[in-house]
Amino acid sequence: MAVIAQKCPEITVTVVDMNAGRIAAWNSDELPVFEPGLQAVVDESRGRNLFFSTEVDAAIAESDIIFMAVNTPTKTYGVGAGKAADLKYIELCARQIGRVAKTDKIVVEKSTLPVRTAEAIRRILSANPDGPKFQVLSNPEFLAEGTAIEDLYSPDRVLIGGEDSPEGNAAVQTLVDVYAHWVPRERILTANVWSSELSKLTANAFLAQRISSINAISALCEATEADVDQVAHSIGTDSRIGPKFLKASVGFGGSCFQKDILNLVYLCEHFGLPEVAFYWEQVVAMNDYQRRRFTQRVVKTLFNTVSGKKIAVFGFAFKKDTNDTRESSAIYVCRDLLAEQANISVYDPKVSQQQIENDLKYVDAKNLDNIECVADPYDAAKGAHAVLILTEWDAFKTYDYDKIYASMLKPAFLFDGRNILDLKALKKLGFEAFGIGK
What is the per-residue pLDDT for 114? Predict the structure, then answer.
């Protein structure tokens, strides 16, 4: 919304939320989301044509286009628990729009949703036959955290799905015209609503599949003394495969990949396609295996016990350049190490102690008194038996590892879960250093 406001100064954009604290943060110089470049974009438009408000009903009444961007977490209860998307927030949002709106609206699905959710939204909005008319569009987001602003400035594509009718086509064109302020027309794709909804799930499933595939090969590389980076480079030069998303690691995280794949699994099961469901479920299973395998390697290498040992963790966010920890591999690695009674000292440049504790409580981690969050990576490593790299922050490559080695107990171990460090150089310093697939 900030980028739309920046690129379309004649359009008034109002972001609303029921959470007053969050809106206050958006109206401050300390935004609730860390994203490179975001502060400057918000500062340029805020107060001009970009507004943040808790006045939800007023914004609905005054708008022509409404983007629904509420959370769609995986269900934790009832039918489909653990796989299906929980659509209660979408339904509540749709009912609020239907209750408040007095004029015709274009309603745009921005949340990641299962196929045919637009039909449910349309039925809710159209419950009053004498009320205003609504057109429901699907406009899934393909940006990546950490590079979101650049992804919005120069997207591979913008996808808009709508109803194949004169009214639906007119609504699609209205949204096309918004993006056309800065996106070349050939990159703005249109489709029917159902294809648009499924495209988001499919894109995330394909990307996660590539990560799980190279992570599966990383286990074989470690067993055969092959180098997974060399294997990835070799196959990545094949034009039919390409080099992206072939970086072996401790596992993928974030708000989308696992949630969307499990949603896809549930849809396949719902429509009687168990073999297809099983195929996609293995992408998540491989990710879980990669996390467990990393932790087991740490424990085995540290003489089969980490009880009472200090372990330094560098990075808790699911990827660099974000403060987002949702489904971060660090959560599960720390949980399993805490179960082994390790003492963990975490350093992350953007994640707070409170967030770390909340994430670990959510996965029922034990021994939470054994984890601390420190403000300095050298303090985290001091007196530690091992250092674990769990997020690929660029700063981690620049640290004085000679100093870190000198402060640790010996033998000093380092496990690079993101393959960002020079293992040979670390070994020359004295570390017993290990990477993924090496």
Answer: 63
Q: What is the per-residue pLDDT for 118?
A: 79
Give per-residue pLDDT as tens, 328-362: 999 999 999 999 999 999 999 999 999 999 999 99
Please report which confidence band the pLDDT of residue 80 belongs to, taking 50, 70 and 90 as the band edges: confident
What would the 3-class secondary structure string for the chain be?
CHHHHHHCCCCCEEEECCCHHHHHHHCCCCCCCCCCCHHHHHHHHECCCEEEECCHHHHHHHCCEEEECCCCCECCCCCCCCCCECCHHHHHHHHHHHHHCCCCEEEEECCCCCCCHHHHHHHHHCCCCCCCCEEEEECCCCCCCCCHHHHHHCCCCEEEEECCCHHHHHHHHHHHHHHCCCCCHHHEEEEEHHHHHHHHHHHHHHHHHHHHHHHHHHHHHHHHCCCHHHHHHHHHCCCCCCCCCCCCCCCCCCCCHHHHHHHHHHHHHHCCCHHHHHHHHHHHHHHHHHHHHHHHHHHHHCCCCCCCCEEEEECCCCCCCCCCCCCCHHHHHHHHHHHCCCEEEEECCCCCHHHHHHHHHHCCCCCHHHEEECCCHHHHHCCCCEEEECCCCHHHHHCCHHHHHHHCCCCCEEEECCCCCCHHHHHHHCCEEEECCC
Give me the pLDDT at residue 88, please.
87
Average pLDDT, the chain: 95
Q: What is the pLDDT of residue 154?
A: 97
The pLDDT confidence band at residue 128, using thresholds 50, 70 and 90, is confident
Which amino acids are annotated catalytic?
256
